[in-house]
Amino acid sequence: MAIRCIIVDDEFPARILLKEFIEKVPNLELIGSFESGLAALEVIQKGDVDLMFLDIQMPDITGVNFVKMLTKKPLVVFTTAYSE
């Protein structure tokens, strides 16, 4: 059974890189790629997402605060371009 995942990152190059990594893992199925948490909210709330690759630093809401507001929480892998 495939693990359904999404990417949430405001940077287009980061979304492309994550997509390429996900495609190399046989049990991962990418079902969506979004530039903000708010854009991904509907698919997450439907319960279709098992795993979310989520950027920590985004303009509208941080990844951490976005996860806190979710009622249905998939597993989360936080991603960032920053060394801190």
Overall description:
The chain is of the alpha/beta class and 84 residues long. The chain has 3 helices and 4 strands, in the order E-H-E-H-E-H-E. The protein has a 4-stranded parallel sheet with strand order 2-1-3-4, with helices on both faces. The longest helix is centred in the N-terminal third of the chain and has 12 residues. The radius of gyration is 12 Å and the shape is globular.
Order of neighbouring strands in the sheet with most strands:
2-1-3-4
- Helix proportion: 25-40%
By secondary-structure content and strand pairing, the structural class works out as alpha/beta
DSSP strand content:
25-35%
Give the biggest sheet.
4 strands, parallel
The total beta strand count reads 4
Provide mean pLDDT, rounded: 94
Number of contiguous helices: 3
**Shape assignment:** globular
Q: How far apart lie the N and C ends? A: 35 Å
